[in-house]
């Protein structure tokens, strides 16, 4: 049974709208980055399924989160198949993020009452994802699509929660621009963050979170 419902995930994304997108093959380093992000105000954290050790590190992180930060939602990203989704949900994933739209993965998430965030680019894809039950849609790769594109898309889909992610630079002006264009939340590739020093990372994350939270 998932710890958090689909509805709770949407609410949390609205209230803490910065989501680090992260992968690392060393459990100790992954814990360090997650902890620093949490201390900076992050409450949704995406760990991507992009390496041979991804599942093992995710499972370790999930145990760490449940023991130390039970209010943090840890999601699994870069999920392509229903089998992958089931495996990560069994390991405790609080939400599932895809770079694509998969009706089979959507069905798995619905069965578990878990938030499903599929990747979209076009208005047709946004509509398809909405019809399949997306909690939020992942506008990807956002940096190539631009805030102006999101603003135009919002004209037809004014209320659907949208996560902008993919190549977005972690600066206050850039995040403010995405927020003003209509992003419900913003995913930031952790490789673009200052991850070498935990205190510096926490301060950077807190600054970016404030920028997103004070911009409507």
Task: Give an account of the 3D structure.
- With 216 residues, this protein is of the alpha/beta class.
- It has helices at 6-15, 27-39, 54-68, 82-90, 103-111, 123-131, 142-154, 172-181, 198-213, and strands spanning 18-22, 44-48, 73-77, 95-97, 115-117, 119-120, 137-139, 162-165, 185-189.
- Strand 4 (95-97), helix 5 (103-111) and strand 5 form a beta-alpha-beta unit.
- Helix 2 crosses helix 9 and helix 7 runs parallel beside helix 8.
- The longest helix has 16 residues, at 198-213.
Structural class: alpha/beta
**Rg (C-alpha, Å):** 16 Å
How confident is the prediction overall: mean pLDDT? 95
Widest β-sheet, arrangement of strands: 3-2-1-9-8-7-6
Keywords:
alpha/beta, 9 strands, 9 helices, 216 residues, two-stranded parallel ribbon, 7-stranded parallel β-sheet, globular
Summarize the entry for a quick read:
By secondary structure, the protein is of the alpha/beta class. 48% of the residues lie in helices and 16% in strands.
């Amino acid at each position: 049974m998932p710890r958090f419902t689909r509805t709770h995930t949407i609410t949390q994304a609205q209230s803490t709208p910065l989501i680090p997108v992260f992968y690392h093959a060393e459990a100790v380093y992954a814990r360090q980055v997650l902890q620093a992000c949490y201390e900076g105000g992050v409450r949704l954290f995406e760990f991507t399924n992009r390496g041979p050790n991804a599942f093992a590190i995710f499972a370790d992180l999930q145990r760490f989160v449940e023991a130390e930060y039970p209010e943090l939602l840890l999601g699994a990203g870069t999920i392509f198949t229903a089998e992958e989704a089931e495996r990560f949900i069994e390991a405790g994933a609080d939400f599932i993020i895809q770079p694509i739209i998969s009706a089979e993965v959507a069905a798995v998430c619905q069965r578990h009452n878990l938030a499903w965030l599929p990747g979209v680019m076009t208005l047709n894809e946004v509509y398809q994802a909405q019809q399949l039950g997306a909690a939020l849609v992942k506008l990807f790769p956002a940096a190539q699509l631009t805030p102006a594109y999101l603003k135009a898309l919002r004209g037809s889909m004014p209320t659907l929660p949208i996560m902008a992610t993919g190549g977005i630079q972690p600066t206050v002006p850039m995040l403010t621009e995405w927020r003003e264009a209509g992003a419900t939340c913003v995913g930031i590739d952790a490789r673009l963050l200052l991850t070498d020093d935990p205190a510096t990372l926490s301060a950077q994350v807190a600054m970016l979170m404030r920028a997103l939270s004070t911009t409507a």
